[in-house]
């Protein structure tokens, strides 16, 4: 992957990081602006990385827009879970920790399932090579965003808590 694509992916990651941090204390309007910036940068990254012909692009982009719309719902769920984690950070219980982890695992599974489904759709509409390149770029951006979020979220505190329900 060329250097420009990696730089663009890092920019996407930085925008998402600002978006995630802003969501806790800023108005929803600001959050939506940051999300719009991230989507714009991500589209530019995908455009550059895939380097599609006009024929491939006419098939790919409608599928991508559908994918991005569904991914935004998963991202919304993730942001809500991060907010719930922040809200419960100082009063964490075993039950709340389990609830938050199970929600995070479900969100990750939903994202994986979405990628798998859209890999197939893109491969059928264009080619497996185009779909693989898309998935590679998508994975790069997601991994960078995941790393940034993980670096900024503190570990679950070690608290004396109520035992988990059996």
Task: Describe what you observe in this structure.
There is one protein chain. With 166 residues, the protein is mainly α. The chain has one domain. It has five helices and no strands. The protein is elongated.
Break the fold down into its secondary structure elements and pairings.
Blueprint: H1 3-25, H2 28-50, H3 54-88, H4 94-125, H5 128-152
Supply Rg. 18 Å
Q: CA-to-CA gap between the ends?
A: 49 Å
Regarding quaternary structure, how should these chains be classified? single chain
- Along the chain, the helix and strand elements come as HHHHH
Q: Structural class, from secondary structure content?
A: mainly alpha
Keywords:
166 residues, mainly alpha, 5 helices
In short:
The chain has 166 residues and is mainly α. The chain has helices at residues 3-25, 28-50, 54-88, 94-125, 128-152.
